[in-house]
């Protein structure tokens, strides 16, 4: 459609060539005129087990070259109604987590001030805290859909209060999110004690553990969450380790017994119509992803989230 950026068609230029941007979209150096900015945050200094997520954005972009612009399941054609571009990677400080989190926050202040919806490719999950800090200034405390194997509500890790495992405790403490509109989906695995999985429920967080979702469609659950959110601003944070490692082995902290890719799609589709003010896809670690399948899945989930942004029509 004329006037809107379109991904380069595979019929015009072979998909194994062309720019290394998300879905081979145009790259933008300014925010003027954009509705949505896709960006990379190549960081892994907030991790505690496997590293490698610094390579996530580059690999997600590479695998996204296969995605076509029309969503066959929902009829969404986001590039016909929103001006979307890849604005490249944030220049984080690879030697300093604290400095990097500040860079992310300042960058997001600028993106949001321009009225642009940010869609981030991580990077480890520590990136979401400065994002939420900027989002809250713009929109107030937001509803949160957090899809993850882990609740990420530790008080500290090795004495550090800002890591990939402490994000949502800090977000709750700082009033960045609405506790009773915070949905943590897919959490599972082992813990240090029972309160690893119950303390956040005391704050008001709604938990949907993976073992309660096995062999179930997530369409009805997603629809209930969608109704509960209403028209509130909502942020979606999608950790790829929410999926079972059979589907997404290339991640920093894999846990067995996770969601399937079909369930992931059902959940995102069910959130259509929500007032999504930003989203991220984190924890893709290419060194543990030799087939590229984890990054391919991540790229498709990012496309699906773009397809439910405000202003995109569904069939």
Primary descriptors:
Arginase, Chain A; 315 residues; 8 strands; 28% helix; alpha/beta; 8-stranded parallel β-sheet; 8 helices; globular
Question: If you had to describe this structure to a student in words, what would you say it looks like?
Answer:
The protein has 315 residues and is an alpha/beta fold. It has one domain (22-307): Arginase, Chain A (3-Layer(aba) Sandwich). It has helices at residues 56-63, 97-113, 128-139, 167-173, 195-203, 219-229, 261-270, 293-307; strands spanning 36-41, 84-89, 117-122, 142-147, 177-185, 206-208, 233-239, 275-282. The protein has an eight-stranded parallel β-sheet, sandwiched between helices. The chain is globular, with a radius of gyration of 18 Å. It starts with 35 loop residues before the first strand and ends in an 8-residue tail after the last helix. The model has no long low-confidence stretch (mean pLDDT 95).
Tell me briefly what this model is.
By secondary structure, this protein is α/β, with parallel strands linked by helices.
């Amino acid at each position: 459609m004329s006037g809107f950026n379109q991904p380069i068609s595979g019929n015009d230029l072979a998909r194994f060539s062309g720019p290394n941007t998300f879905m081979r979209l145009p790259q933008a150096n300014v925010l003027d005129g954009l509705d949505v900015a896709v960006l990379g945050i190549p960081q892994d200094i907030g991790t505690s087990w496997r590293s490698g997520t610094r390579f996530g954005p580059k690999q997600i972009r590479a695998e996204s070259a296969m995605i076509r612009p029309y969503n066959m399941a929902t009829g969404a054609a986001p590039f016909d109604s929103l001006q979307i571009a890849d604005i490249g990677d944030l220049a984080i400080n690879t030697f300093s987590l604290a400095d990097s989190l500040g860079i992310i926050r300042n960058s997001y202040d600028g993106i949001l001030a321009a009225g642009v919806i940010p869609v981030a490719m991580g990077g480890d999950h520590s990136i979401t805290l400065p994002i939420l800090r900027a989002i809250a200034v713009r929109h107030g405390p937001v509803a949160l859909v957090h899809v993850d194997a882990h609740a990420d509500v530790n008080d500290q890790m090795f004495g550090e209060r800002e890591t990939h495992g402490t994000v949502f405790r800090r977000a709750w403490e700082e009033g960045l999110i609405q506790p009773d509109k915070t949905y943590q989906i897919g959490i599972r695995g082992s813990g240090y004690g029972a309160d690893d999985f119950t303390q956040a429920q005391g704050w008001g967080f709604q938990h949907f553990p993976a073992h309660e979702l096995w062999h179930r469609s997530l369409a009805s659950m997603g629809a209930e969450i969608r109704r509960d959110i209403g028209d509130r601003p909502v942020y979606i944070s999608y950790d790829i380790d929410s999926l079972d490692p059979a589907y997404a082995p290339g991640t920093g902290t894999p846990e067995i017994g996770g969601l399937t890719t079909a369930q992931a799609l059902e959940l995102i589709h069910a959130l259509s119509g929500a007032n999504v003010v930003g989203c991220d896809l984190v924890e893709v670690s290419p060194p543990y992803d030799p087939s590229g399948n984890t990054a391919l899945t991540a790229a498709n989930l990012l496309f699906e989230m773009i397809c439910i942004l405000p202003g995109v029509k569904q069939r």
